[in-house]
Amino acid sequence: MRPERVQRLVRSAAQQHRTAVGHALAHDPAHHLVVVGGSPSPLVKAPAAILVGSARAGEHIALSGGDSPGPAFELAAGLERDWTRATLWWGDERCVPPDDERSNYLLAQRTLLDRVETGKVHRIRGELGGEQAAAEYHEQLEGVRLGLSFQGIGPDGHTASLFPNVAALEERERRAVAVPHEDVERVTMTVPVLSAAAKMLYLVLGESKAEAVRKVFAEDPSPDAPASLLRSADGETIALLDRAAAAELDNIS
Is 66 buried (19+), middle (13-18) or exposed (0-12) by CB count in 10 A? Predict the structure, then answer.
């Protein structure tokens, strides 16, 4: 999808849902921040449309897990049934089988994959264990440039499975790595792969994310808030926030 088309989608969402367009990403004028007042439900229309545009364009798309993307996936599936031109990836995954309730793949399967006709689907085979699954994904990602990376942000400022101050934030050679975590081991795409995406799209909802949003978008980049380190290097970064998530930003009209 062309950058001007993405901008029109974002600004259209702002106009249709009475959003305020701020400038928390003003260090780079190509980056846009959209804040939606009231219920977060209208906010999923913009990422759904961007996902569909990338699918129709036959791009490589990295999907995410968490609470926010499911409704956007469902809406995207309703907008376009033919995803055969797209190649689907996951920004990260827990080291669990694909039918485990904690699986990011399972979320996408229920809300998107089972509702559309898909092309190539590259899930992270977390059931192999972190090191083996990461090595496999590293090989599969050779030569791949993401057209769209669809991401969330956790209350601690993490994105994908890049948690505060983990060694994976410094990885520049591997395309995917295993990441220890207190609940279950993860596999994540690394900073070079994610930041090479032509479009980086953040969807962040809820007051529990407000402090993280301030650190990520209004303060200096820091490994204490890993998402602050991830922007599209030579493309576009879009952050879609509801009012609750944007509560600690001071330049929202």
Answer: middle
